[in-house]
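agent: user wants the structure for Glycosyltransferase from Hymenobacter jeongseonensis. delegating to structure tool.
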Amino acid sequence: MQPLVLLIPNLGLGGAQRVFHDHSVELAKHYAVTEAVFNLEGGDLYPSGNPVESLEVSGGGGVVAKLTNFRRRIGGLRQLRERLQPTACISHLEGADYVNLLSGGPGKTILCVHGSKLHDANIKGPVGWLRKKVLMPLLYNRADRIVTVSRDIMPELITGFGVKPEKLLTINNFFDVPQIEAKSQEPLSASEAAVYAAAPVLVTSGRLTIQKNQAPLLDIFAAVLRQQPAKLVFVGDGELREELTSHARGLGLRVYAAWENTAALTPDFDVYFLGLQQNPFKYLRPATAFVFPSAWEGFPMALGEAMVCGLPVVSTDCPTGPREMLAPATATPAAPLRRAEQGEFGILLPMLTSPATAAADQGIWASALTTLLSNASEREQLGKLARERMQDFTRERIFGQWLQLLKEVCRD
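agent: tool returned. relaying tokens verbatim.
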């Protein structure tokens, strides 16, 4: 089989790393795949079984250290490409993209862009300016092809960074539908089942980070609780865990946090932070609805997984992904959504990032959730439609597009 290199900064926790793993597993059926990473300091949380080559370059440090490490990564990848003679090198995440583009060497250069660049709040300060104004506009057109995981990332790259349209192609993330469905059937523990039986359960899944924007969801949930009984379950962990639990308690909500080990899991709480779970899907399937308050996305895995589990989903109309998944026949509105929009496969709601409209936007969310929780027939219908929609993103359907792309690019 022809050799192929897949490059990513690290193999730690994250949606891009999960997609990277899935690509590695599938591509290994057709190519001799080698995974390359800057370093293995965070471990390998999604092992694929394919060979892993670490460039052994750490991160961090001051400006001089960062520049030195950057050069070392470029040189390390160049040596790896010279040694393996890959037919292509496919990079995931922006830092890996720059190294891929500048390393040269054998093989075509393909980038996989996982999320919005214009709306990523982590791209800020002098380094953010450098990335947006210099590196992406100057370097991205060097790629042989750029794959975006959402259709709405393409116009950002064209208008925002001057990427040539002919370089771009959208291939959505794929979902292992049978595996997710099977794992979702795993039963809850007796204490977990008691929580789910006590009241309607709103569940959200994802890292506790600024991107996922979970703090306003707590304010919304407090408003919902004033109308009817309910539980809010968080599956995932992250750097904002203390901030979110403190905010919840500040709202008068009774909080269970798995990492605190100070209280037994009982139905006596309002909000449940369950932390990282090896099988998050078993917490999705028995829930009443899935809520997704992200500030920006790519093509969100957590939202798709909830849809596979047959949950009615409620999501911000954030850039990018949710509209494409829930209302694919519609275009991104010129102005931010300020109402509840019934999409073909789920409900789109205002983003929760504007201080000027925060109270009104949260009110729209609370009203939509209260209405949904009181309408079992609508929930059943939305859950059925969500599950049907995910048949468009099966492994077989999506990955054929990757194989076709590699065939075309490597033939040029």
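agent: one observation worth passing along. Residues 63-84 form the longest helix (22 residues).
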